[in-house]
Design a protein that fits this description.
By secondary structure, the chain is an alpha+beta fold. It is 43% helix and 19% strand.
Length: 280
């Protein structure tokens, strides 16, 4: 089945059988005049698989001090820094991977790939087949779900703690590592091993990243009068604390981020919220 939708940003929900494994599917189309260079930003995020299709153009992503030239079929590990992108056009389709998805689709130590990009073929020998299906015009949700079913046919046993842990990290009321450890009946060391292996980072960084992204998405377009209450609702005691986290996760101030972010980032936030229920 081909897809005739030519919107610049499209998100699709995954079928219910993949709930908790993937965030959903996305496609970004950049129609640029010849010679133009597009610059924008991805937020710190979960692990992501992406493919360049439809006459793909070279694009790159800078994560902290490292710049990665993106393979046609890429695996980007979980990120704790913004991904500043540069492109000259083309179409990218992708799928976000939750912790449970990583454990069941691939397994192993995810922290090895944190803030890194590698060819997807390093993890999955069928990456070329999936790329060819997508580049051949197959509807992305169909191609991705067939690939997911094939990966899950040799299913790794799910860890019952991961679903609880992911829900707790997303909970605005959970602010302390000790709360996670107590609820899951783990030592702090056991918790750290679990999160690094399946989320890529320590529990402290995961809680800070989630709080920051929650606050950022709520306040980016808010007035100064509104932002104080929104920051408090997200779990910040004061604005200075939020601004320190901005430098950690974005690599710049909030003012600079607003100046540097492009139209794709804002459109992605709106479209993702409409389809998946969350802007980031």
């Amino acid at each position: 089945m081909a897809d005739s939708d030519d919107a610049p940003v499209t998100f699709w929900r995954a079928s219910e059988r993949f709930a908790g494994l993937v965030t959903g599917f996305h496609r970004f189309r950049l129609g640029l005049p010849v010679g133009s260079v597009f610059r924008d930003v991805f937020f710190p995020s979960l692990a992501t698989i992406r493919f360049g299709i439809e006459g793909p153009q070279p694009w790159s992503m800078r994560l902290g001090a490292r710049k990665f030239d993106m393979p046609l079929a890429s695996f980007t590990g979980p990120t704790s820094v913004a991904g500043w992108i540069e492109a000259t056009g083309g179409t990218v389709v992708g799928i976000g991977i939750h912790a449970q998805g990583w454990a069941r689709l691939f397994g192993g130590d995810l922290s090895v790939y944190a803030n890194r990009v590698v060819p997807l073929a390093n993890l999955d020998g069928s990456a070329q087949r999936l790329l060819e299906a997508l580049d051949g015009g197959e509807h992305p949700p169909i191609a991705f779900e067939r690939w997911l079913d094939r990966r899950l046919a040799t299913d790794r046993a799910p860890d019952p703690l991961l679903e609880r842990l992911e829900a707790m990290i997303a909970d605005v009321a959970v602010m302390r590592i000790e709360t996670l450890a107590e609820e899951l009946q783990l030592t702090s060391r056991q918790l750290s091993v679990l999160t690094r292996q399946n989320f890529g980072f320590t529990p402290k960084l995961l809680l800070r990243r989630r709080r920051f992204l929650r606050a950022l998405s709520a306040t980016l377009d808010a007035s100064p009068e509104e932002s104080g209450a929104l920051l408090a609702a997200a779990g910040y005691w004061d604005r200075s604390h939020f601004l320190r986290d901005a430098h950690l996760f974005l690599g710049c101030s909030i003012r600079e981020f607003r100046q540097r972010r492009g139209p794709l980032n804002a459109l992605v936030m709106r479209t993702r919220a409409d389809v998946l229920g969350a802007a980031v």
